[in-house]
Design goal:
Strand order of the largest sheet of chain B: 3-2-5-7-8-9
Strand content of chain A: 35-45%
Helix content of chain A: 10-25%
Shape of chain A: globular
Strand order of the largest sheet of chain A: 2-61-60-59
CATH architecture of one domain in chain A: 7 Propeller
Strand content of chain B: 25-35%
Radius of gyration of chain B: 40 Å
Distance between the termini of chain A: 20 Å
Number of helices of chain B: 5
Radius of gyration of chain A: 34 Å
Structural class of chain A: mainly beta
Number of strands of chain A: 61
Distance between the termini of chain B: 96 Å
Structural class of chain B: alpha+beta
Number of helices of chain A: 8
Largest sheet of chain B: 6 strands, antiparallel
Helix content of chain B: 10-25%
Order of helices and strands of chain B: EEEEEEEEEEEEHHHHH
CATH topology of one domain in chain A: Methylamine Dehydrogenase, Chain H
Oligomer: heterodimer
CATH class of one domain in chain A: Mainly Beta
Number of strands of chain B: 12
């Protein structure tokens, strides 16, 4: 008996040890059952541009079409019109270069779409987004068109493209549609600026801008033969006294039966139209319909050679819009006004669709969609819209900005219409027969800053509790009783919902139940400030829909905004910017609160810690302490500051030391005023890393790396008592070529149980005592570039931290457990028993990113610029939110979910176990009783 | 666009140099029987000396093309959503007539001179084939309920052993020959836990009321501990 007991104790101990060791080497990973539920992702493209958004059939033999767009963020993609999901996407500008113009064309019946941006013309497979060919031009592209020739010589294969490029040698190139080879090239002589290309079925026209001495713009047209590329004709249009800037050129048509050029004078009083290929200019008076001046004039024309040569001119004022439809007589080149569409209030969006030769114009206004034929003004279809179904500010009128439609016509009526509309809220919506099908929150693609805020109802409880904590006991007691009495009012509704909740509690698992009150703090409001001057809020608990979306700044085009967001008081979001006074918003509903905040001062801003404010002046980092200059960091000659990361303001640390395997303690160097500074010396290709004390400005740690590729991002982070940074280096004698991650940890002393210089002192000041920490660093070779580093944050800092790295090349975010990069990993030897107990494993130079560490698992998160983390109310969990182009969010438990029952908790199994034990007890109880009685009789 | 990311001097030295690298992904069952199933985001990165970095998206014919490479030593990595590809070293060197281009496997974390098997070498244009090394497995599966692991767990084993003792001991005792039985009984009598004077029976028969009443100081009661 005794022996077996001892044996049992042994077994127990060993299982405890194995369990403990299992926890010490955490296999942190994305669980299959949580993968698509806990995380959320918006695969965005950015605001679609009107000229580069259209319906197109990727497979000429099938009628199913996709929506293609090349957005303002230079993302090219195809969207499924049925559910708004992304079919494929290619980012055409990865390094944030903004191009003035971009083009996207699709030839009728072609299985490729052709993009033009910067110096690159590229053809992409329309169905799956694979590259077909690419061609780079010497000068920047001014226009790309597809040749739709009808001379019978064209084969059935891929249609050729024509590209117009400017620069030192402006050229027109005809590009083979199948291979991407240049068929011919025409060099444009003279100093005129290439403007656009236009193609009819028989000729190519290059339109150039000629500046006259008086400063006006004259249009010069060079006519080319599409087969040989030789110049056929050249003439100038007599547009001298009207055209002062290119902004007044309304349209240069292309790929239509008779392309035309339209322009207006600067006051929008007359519209001039020229049919390309003729020299006659016809003018039409623009009648003023209301008091407000015309803001813009747009021409909508079909984009097919075989379509009727009709076009629509859209006039927009601040208050209303109307349109005129014109017909071009192909025989004599005369333009006639056919009919007008009446004035309607608000903004309007027009789109052109074709069906065989017929042309249809669809008009989208605030409250209805109408379709007319280009031939007559009779309405073929009308659908009223109650709402676009998007979140907007209170009292804000949602207006359509531009639209693209696909119309199917039976007889004299439109049988079905699908319209995609970009709205003034930034949403891109799809309406089928006037009913909303999906909406894509494309405004989030230009998110600049984000913040997390507690919802207002949760915030009130927190505030009340604070009131109780800070008042005298009697008052607090009365306050508490009052609060509970007011809570009693909710009792009836709770009782009613109780049976339902019990049933739910038995069937569901506790972690999914986010509909009820948020005890875990998962349902925080994420507020994003977009470049377009809007504030958009998401609920981290149910992120599928936008909670609210308000316009905060009325921006002029070209005006840049640098908003700052904060949530200092729970339930309240503060927005401040240099453009205007800051405003506070209610986090739950987006209502502005009365208080006004001061305007943020000018000058480049660097993330600041609580007491020290940093500014950059001529490459020097200046810190001011309580508004008085404290110190300045001037880099050496030829050195520039890349990045500066102070320790986060709210960075709780639970333990001041690291407990070793033998229960001794290594004391962490914890100073809330330290920052990591990375500088580059371009001439020598070196990167310098400094850890600064931000109070005194002293350098407490520094390191130099040589052979660094400074054109590739260097990411850095600082938290607790450690820092990490990554860079890319060239092969050298001591280093292998590739990407490296360096992790450094600062200790008060490297001797356990010894606090070094600070041993005896209870208070210490960075100004008086110069204590230098002992740093341990370790370098790891990583498989790819890290563009941004972040770290998880929890409420008390008890949970171990996880390093989050944004990987731009594999479109992901990887969560590296700190244990995997711990600088204390033993080098060139196996860990001792004590080290094993701590969870340290032998150092290896290569750190492979385990696919299970990828927070995004199979999702592809493109263009992430930053990762924001926020603690949940429970200690184990940190909320993660990544933004840039895509929006991605998830919850992380770096030390496993120790304070919440996760999905792995099987309620049924638990209930079954309890039941089985109960049954067993009932069966065994009489047996044991009898045995005990027997025993008494036997031994007494 | 990023086909040839014009980072620094990508466009300047275009026509003069003619080294061209084409990397194709063959069908390699069982891992990747159809390379056409690769995501369109799959791309290859050629990392040269500082400032030179080319990125090429996957083409319709499952290839990556890098035209016009300068003379340098490059690190070629292929990034795919679902597969790992081995890293390669690509060297473009000057030859008597034009350029020589060669590719080897390389090993992360090793010296750059530590080259693996050669993938190919050619004058001017090099075509190589690279197959994925493994598939990415993103998901951790939770251990479900398994009756064998349940039975094997030490707690249950302990319980089972106890059950065997409870039910099995009397049976064994009954089947033992009388001598053994006697011996056992003797042993149990001597043992500190058993018998009327054993610790176990003392605890079981402890007279709490008597002890509290101060009765137990060496008098007649059975609850005294200081007997020996």
């Amino acid at each position: 008996m005794r022996a077996s007991n001892r044996a049992n104790a042994h077994i127990m101990l060993s299982t405890l040890l194995t369990a403990a060791s299992l926890f010490l080497v955490p296999a942190l990973a994305v669980f299959a059952d949580e993968a698509w539920n806990v995380d959320y992702h918006f695969a965005l493209l950015g605001a679609p541009k009107e000229e580069t958004s259209f319906f197109h059939q990727p497979n000429p033999s099938s009628r199913a079409s996709l929506i293609y767009t090349l957005s303002e963020q230079h993302a090219l993609g195809a969207v499924n019109p049925r559910d708004g999901s992304l079919v494929w996407r290619q980012l055409l500008s990865s390094d944030g270069v903004a191009y003035r113009t971009s083009f996207l064309r699709a030839g009728e019946g072609q299985d490729v779409v052709i993009s033009g941006i910067g110096h690159e013309v590229a053809a992409w497979s329309a169905a799956d987004g694979r590259l077909v060919w690419t061609l780079s031009t010497d000068g920047p592209l001014e226009d790309v068109e597809i040749l739709e020739l009808s001379d019978g010589k064209e084969t059935a294969g891929a249609k050729d493209a024509v590209a117009l490029s400017s620069g030192a040698n402006p050229t027109v190139q005809r590009i083979d549609g199948a291979s991407g080879a240049v068929k011919w090239q025409f060099n444009i002589d003279g100093s005129d600026a290439p403007y656009q290309l236009s193609a009819s079925s028989t000729q190519i026209f290059a339109i150039l801008l000629h500046k006259t001495i008086l400063g006006y713009v004259k249009l010069r047209v060079v006519v080319l033969d599409p087969v040989t590329g030789h110049k056929v004709d050249e003439y100038s249009l007599n547009s001298e006294n009207e055209l002062s800037t290119t902004e007044n050129i309304v349209s240069v048509g292309a790929n239509s039966a008779s392309p035309m050029i339209a322009w207006t004078d600067s006051l929008y009083t007359t519209l001039k139209v020229n049919v390309v290929g003729t020299k006659s200019i016809q003018s039409f008076d623009i009648a003023a319909h209301d008091d407000s001046p015309i803001e813009h004039v747009k021409v909508h024309a079909p984009y097919h050679v075989n379509s009727l040569s009709h076009f629509l001119v859209h006039y927009q004022t601040a208050a209303s819009h109307w349109a005129d439809v014109f017909h071009i007589n192909l025989k004599n080149g005369k333009v006639e006004k056919a009919y007008s569409l009446p004035k309607l209030a608000g903004r309007g969006a027009f789109s052109t669709s074709t069906s065989d030769a017929n042309v249809y114009f669809t008009r989208v206004t605030r409250d209805e969609i109408t379709t007319v034929s280009s031939a007559s003004h009779g309405v073929l279809g009308r659908w009223s819209l109650n709402t676009f179904g998007v979140a907007a500010g209170i009292g804000e009128q949602v207006e359509p900005i531009h639209a693209a439609s696909e119309v199917s016509v039976k007889g004299d009526t439109v049988s079905a219409i699908r319209t995609t509309i970009l709205l003034s809220t930034g949403d891109w919506v799809m309406l089928r027969d006037g009913k909303g099908i999906w909406n894509r929150p494309e405004m989030l693609a230009s998110t600049m800053v984000v913040t997390f805020a507690l919802p207002a109802d949760a915030a009130t409880l927190v505030q009340q509790l604070e009131v109780e904590a800070h008042s005298n006991p009697v008052a607090a007691y009365i306050h508490r009783v009052q609060r509970h009495l007011s809570d009693l009012q909710r009792l009836p509704s709770i009782i009613v919902s109780l049976p339902q909740q019990i049933v739910k509690g038995f069937l569901g698992t506790s972690a999914d139940d986010l509909t009820a009150s948020d005890t875990f703090g998962f349902r925080q409001i994420i507020v994003c400030a977009t470049r377009g001057g809007r504030l958009v809020a998401l609920d981290a608990g149910s992120p599928d829909k936008i909670v609210w979306n308000v316009n905060v700044a009325d921006l002029q085009p070209g005006q840049s905004r640098e908003p700052f967001l904060a949530s200092r008081i729970a339930g309240v979001v503060e927005v401040s910017s240099r453009a205007g006074a800051g405003i506070q918003y209610n986090a739950t509903n987006g209502q502005p609160l009365a208080e006004r905040l001061p305007v943020v001062p000018e000058g480049p801003q660097v993330p600041s810690s609580q007491v020290v404010l940093y500014t950059m002046h001529d490459g020097t980092l200046e810190a001011s302490f309580n508004r008085t200059p404290a110190w300045a960091f001037t880099p050496m000659h030829g050195e520039r500051i890349i990045d500066m990361v102070p320790r986060p303001v709210n960075d709780p640390v639970a333990s001041i030391g690291k407990v070793l395997g033998d229960r001794r303690v290594l004391y962490k160097y914890l100073d809330s005023n330290i920052a990591l500074l990375v500088t580059a010396q371009d001439s020598m290709g070196t990167a310098n890393v400094y850890v600064l004390s931000t109070v005194s400005g002293a350098i407490i740690y520094s390191n130099v790396h040589t052979g660094v590729d400074l054109t590739i991002p260097i990411a850095s982070i600082m938290s607790e008592n450690w820092f990490a940074y990554s860079f890319t280096n060239e092969a050298s004698d001591e280093a292998s070529k590739g990407h490296q991650l360096v992790v450094g940890e600062l200790f008060e002393s490297l001797v356990p149980d010894d606090r070094g210089m600070m041993g005896a002192t209870t208070n210490f000041s960075g100004m008086q005592t110069a204590t230098e920490p002992f740093a341990l660093t370790q370098t790891y070779q990583i498989p790819e570039v890290i563009s941004k580093l972040a770290v998880t944050r929890t409420r008390q800092g008890i949970t171990s931290r996880q390093l989050l790295a944004v990987l731009p090349d594999s479109n992901g975010i990887v969560g590296i457990p700190y244990g995997a990069v711990d600088p204390r990993r033993p080098v060139n030897r196996d860990p001792t028993k004590d080290e094993q107990a701590e969870g340290l494993v032998r150092y290896t130079a290569v750190l492979e990113f385990d696919p299970k560490w990828f927070l995004n698992h199979q999702r592809e998160i493109v263009g992430v610029k930053n990762v924001f983390t926020s603690p949940a109310l429970i200690e184990s969990t940190s909320l993660v939110f990544a933004y840039g182009l895509d929006i991605f969010g998830t919850r992380l438990s770096p030390s496993f979910s120790f304070d919440i029952l996760g999905k792995d908790f099987n309620k049924l199994q638990m209930l079954a176990t309890v039941a089985a034990l109960a049954v067993a007890t009932f069966i065994v109880a009489p047996l044991v009783m009898r045995k005990q009685v027997d025993q008494r009789w036997r031994f007494l | 666009m990023l086909l040839l990311t014009p980072l620094v001097f990508a466009t300047l030295t275009s026509i003069a140099s003619a080294a061209r690298l084409t990397v194709s992904i063959p069908s390699s069952p069982p891992l990747l029987p159809n390379p056409g199933s690769l995501a369109p985001s799959t791309h290859a990165i050629l990392l040269g000396p500082p400032g030179t970095r080319y990125s090429a998206p996957l083409r319709r014919d499952n290839t990556f093309a890098f035209p016009d490479l300068e003379e340098a030593s490059y690190l070629l990595t292929i990034q795919s959503r679902d597969y790992f590809f081995p890293p390669l070293r690509v060297d473009v060197t000057k030859a008597a007539d034009g350029q020589t281009i060669a590719a080897w496997q390389t090993f992360r974390g090793n010296e750059w001179s530590n080259k693996g098997p050669q993938y190919g070498s050619a004058k001017g244009t090099l075509n190589i084939q690279v197959s994925p090394s493994s598939q990415k497995d993103f998901y951790q599966h939770r251990g479900g309920f398994d009756i064998m692991s349940f039975v094997k767990s030490p707690m249950i084993l302990m319980g089972l052993v106890s059950v065997v003792f409870i039910f099995g001991m009397p049976y064994i005792m009954d089947n033992m020959d009388p001598e053994m039985k006697e011996e056992m009984a003797e042993m149990q009598k001597k043992g500190p836990l058993s018998g009327s004077n054993g610790a176990a029976s003392q605890i079981q028969n402890f007279d709490m009321a008597g002890w509290l009443a101060g009765k137990g100081s060496g008098a007649e009661s059975g609850g005294t501990v200081k007997k020996r």
